[in-house]
Amino acid sequence: MHSILASEIGKHQEAYHFFEFATRLDLDNYNGNTREGLHTTSIAAAWMNIVSGFGGMRSDGERLSFQPSLRDAGPLTASRSCMKECC
Question: Where are the alpha helices (DSSP H) in 1-87?
Fold first, then answer.
């Protein structure tokens, strides 16, 4: 959530720092407990950071909207989305 809010208010360096921490939590074993299992909420937060934070996806209205906030992020900025109309 911190990364999403930082992206929204234009604090891009801080947003990326929070994102990096969330994605590295288990890989770098920050809490010394990775052997006990993965932090699935941290993995979900990383996905939310990419889509809602850096991608700026919002579903407040009838349509999805995107307002990307992170520039020059390499693979993070190369994505596609496809939606189907529901019956």
Answer: 2-8, 12-24, 40-48
Query: And the tokens for 41?
Result: 């909420």
CB 69 within 8 A of CB 54: yes
pLDDT of residue 84: 59
pLDDT (0 to 100) of residue 80:
59
Task: Determine the Cα–Cα distance for residues 81 and 87; give it in Å rounded to an integer.
Answer: 19
DSSP 20: H
Sign (positive or negative) of CA dihedral 15, 13, 61, 43: negative
Q: Which among 13-17, 35-39, 68-72, 79-83 has the top mean pLDDT?
A: 13-17
Q: From residue 79, how far is each of 37, 51, 66, 75 by CA, in Å?
A: 29, 10, 12, 8
